[in-house]
């Protein structure tokens, strides 16, 4: 059991990476379409770029959505409409008409035969209305639309909709049928009677009408014509017209739905999984070979994989909604974020892999990948200092401009002209650029979630008015002044060899904060001439000096300094000796244990931490120079850095001998300026 636990403990980081790799692969494959991908990209009105295409199998030509919608609208406009006819209402209306007529006219002073003729004329009008039918509402059908009147689901007759009477036309119809010979007073009375007694006896039978329409729609053919196997579909260079476009769309649909979904679904999943796993494996291999410190940090690996999955998720969501909006997704945020936390090379490598994976799901994949890779390169090349807001705005403008230029070139290649260019695509590129500006708050969010540090945070930490640096200035003013000098030297040195100057400067400002615990034990803070080391043994003095590294790490953690800054505190002395007290002890005791006078390490493992070690040692030792000259300074710098190299302090740092030589030149030049060396003028 203990053996298994020990193996697990030793390999838990590797096991975590394997699980992360598997989960990310499966998640990305889940987002991909579960069909085979048609190998050709095409657009209506553009030339066919691939070789001559022959039909791989027999398939039907599917009608376009516009054709099917047109046929449906045609059927809807002419399909039969069923109305329910209630014959009992006619008898009720005649009975009500007689009753109301007697009530209205029986007390009339001129009630006579003429009035009975009026009754008969009104009765004739009622009879005419109900012979065709009175509608309960206006249904807005065309007047020549065929309708069927049914009673108890039995068709009574078929007439045109325009013949059915609408109640809204009652006054006009009665006045017209009565004519002008009827006295005005009598006409008003009988019209009021009609308004009281006329009831609708025809209403729409929705169920029968809907059923009839569905039967008509079900008979629509979704295909028109057929393509036989080995038949030439389109030749290379031929412009894709509407007919060829429909045939190609039918082939693509048939290829993806029938062939892949039914026969090879599992094979498609396996193939997608292999390709996605291969891409992510390349990323892990890149990290393990060229970014070892990132690879060994599971949080950083998780952060990179999370950003890849997030970009693919956003892109697939947009494609599922409407693939025309794919360029709205700010994919250039990915290299920006990775460059802010790591470096440009890792950001570009990850961006290219992400774009390659998205090539499986986006339309016009070649055009999309070209645009995004070029935009990613521009992002890496233009954004030099992300913490400067003006730089970000300028870079976003350049990225948007590159998008527009590249799209314009592709359009001209496809169309051979400028007519018909889609200016709304330019608007999408502008929206994409505006969305890219969200990278600043996104970096802040990532810092809080993943505990990483960016150049923006480094800029805040470099402010000498921070609480910790103010405390250092008050408690150990000499150390604070030393740290400022080292920061200036280190920043200049980092700029010389292309290292992260901001990171080095911040590391230099905080590298000696551990001296705050015992400031007077360090010479730069001894202003009274009293040396407390006189009361300690050499071993005790060495321990106090060495402990400033461990104390600095504790203080840094207390103030929540980022790990990247703590690394400078941990490594700025490497495994070197507290040489002064070691030599004193050795002079008095030949059996001295060298480990008692050595810093615990580790040695620097990056260019930036190596630069700090050199600058710290050179700046501190330079205080001992008496009557400095150019020759003395040159020998002094060479001697210190060569000793560090001989003791193996830079073996784990990613720094070359050529870069070390460049750093020596910078340090010599800076020290010469500090001591204001001048040539000797003759008297």
Automatic annotation (TrEMBL):
InterPro entries: HD/PDEase_dom (IPR003607), HD_domain (IPR006674), HDIG_dom (IPR006675), Metal-dep_PHydrolase_7TM_extra (IPR011624), Metal-dep_PHydrolase_7TM_intra (IPR011621), PgpH_phosphodiesterase (IPR052722)
Superkingdom, natural source: Bacteria
Membrane-spanning residues: 14-32, 267-287, 299-319, 325-341, 368-387, 392-413, 425-446
Pfam families: 7TM-7TMR_HD (PF07698), 7TMR-HDED (PF07697), HD (PF01966)
Keywords noted in UniProt: Membrane, Transmembrane, Transmembrane helix
Gene3D superfamilies: Hypothetical protein af1432
Tagged with keyword Transmembrane helix: yes
Domain HD, chain residue ranges per copy: 479-621
Alphabetical list of NCBIfam families matching this protein: HDIG
UniProt name for this protein: HD domain-containing protein
Organism: Winogradskyella sediminis
């Amino acid at each position: 059991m203990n053996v298994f636990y020990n193996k697990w403990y030793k390999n838990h980081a590797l096991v975590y990476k394997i699980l992360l790799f598997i989960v990310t692969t499966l998640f990305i494959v889940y987002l991909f379409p579960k069909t085979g991908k048609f190998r050709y990209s095409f657009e209506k009105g553009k030339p066919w770029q691939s070789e001559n295409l022959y039909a791989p199998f027999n398939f039907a030509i599917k009608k376009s959505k516009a054709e099917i919608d047109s046929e449906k609208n045609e059927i809807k406009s002419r399909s039969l409409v069923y109305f329910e006819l209630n014959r009992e209402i006619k008898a009720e209306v005649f009975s009500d008409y007689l009753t109301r007529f007697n009530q209205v006219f029986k007390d009339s002073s001129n009630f006579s035969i003429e009035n009975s003729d009026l009754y008969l004329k009104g009765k004739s009008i009622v009879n005419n209305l109900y012979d065709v039918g009175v509608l309960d509402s206006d249904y807005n059908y065309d007047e020549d639309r065929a309708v069927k009147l049914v009673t108890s689901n039995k068709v009574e007759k078929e007439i045109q909709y325009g013949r059915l009477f609408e109640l809204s036309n009652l006054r006009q119809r009665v006045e017209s049928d009565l004519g002008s010979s009827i006295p005005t007073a009598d006409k008003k009375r009988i019209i009021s009677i009609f308004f009281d007694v006329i009831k609708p006896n025809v209403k729409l039978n929705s169920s029968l009408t809907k059923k009839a329409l569905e039967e008509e729609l079900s008979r629509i053919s979704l295909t028109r014509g057929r393509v036989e196997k080995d038949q030439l579909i389109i030749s290379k260079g031929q412009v894709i017209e509407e007919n060829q476009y429909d045939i190609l769309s039918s082939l693509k649909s048939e290829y993806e739905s029938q062939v892949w979904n039914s026969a090879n679904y599992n094979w498609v999943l396996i193939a997608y999984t292999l390709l996605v796993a291969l891409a992510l494996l390349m990323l892990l291999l890149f990290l393990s070979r060229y970014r070892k410190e990132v690879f060994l940090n599971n949080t950083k690996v998780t952060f990179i994989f999370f950003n890849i999955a997030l970009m693919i998720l956003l892109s697939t969501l947009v494609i599922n909604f409407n693939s025309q909006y794919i360029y709205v997704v700010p994919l250039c945020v990915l290299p920006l974020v990775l460059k802010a936390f790591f470096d440009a090379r890792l950001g570009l490598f990850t961006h290219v892999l992400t774009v390659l994976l998205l090539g499986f799901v986006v339309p016009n994949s070649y055009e999309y990948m070209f645009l995004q890779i070029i935009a990613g390169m521009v992002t890496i090349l233009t954004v030099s200092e992300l913490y400067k807001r003006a730089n970000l705005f300028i870079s976003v403008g350049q990225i948007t401009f590159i998008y527009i230029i590249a799209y314009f070139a592709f359009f001209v290649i496809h169309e051979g002209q400028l007519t018909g260019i889609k200016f709304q695509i330019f608007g999408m590129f502008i929206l994409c650029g505006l969305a890219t500006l969200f990278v600043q708050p996104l970096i802040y969010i990532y810092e809080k979630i993943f505990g990483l540090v960016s150049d923006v945070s480094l800029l805040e930490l470099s402010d000498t008015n921070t609480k910790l640096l103010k405390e250092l200035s008050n408690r150990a003013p000499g150390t604070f002044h030393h740290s400022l000098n080292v920061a200036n030297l280190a920043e200049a040195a980092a700029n010389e060899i292309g290292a992260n100057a901001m990171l080095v400067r911040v590391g230099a400002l905080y590298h000696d904060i551990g001296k705050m615990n015992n400031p007077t034990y360090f010479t730069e803070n001894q202003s009274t001439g009293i040396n407390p080391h006189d009361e300690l043994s050499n071993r005790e003095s060495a321990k106090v000096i060495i402990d400033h590294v461990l104390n600095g790490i504790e203080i840094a953690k207390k103030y929540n300094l980022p790990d990247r800054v703590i690394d400078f505190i941990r490594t700025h002395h490497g495994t070197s000796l507290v040489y002064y007290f070691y030599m004193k002890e050795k002079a008095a005791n030949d059996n001295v244990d060298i480990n008692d006078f050595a810093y615990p390490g580790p040695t620097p493992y990056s260019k930036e931490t190596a630069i700090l070690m050199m600058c710290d040692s050179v700046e501190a030792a330079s205080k001992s120079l008496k009557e400095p000259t150019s020759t003395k300074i040159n020998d002094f710098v060479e001697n210190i850095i060569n000793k560090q190299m001989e003791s193996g302090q830079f073996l784990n740092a990613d720094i070359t001998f050529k870069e070390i030589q460049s750093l020596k030149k910078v340090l010599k030049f800076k020290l010469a300026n500090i001591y204001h060396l001048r040539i000797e003028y003759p008297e």
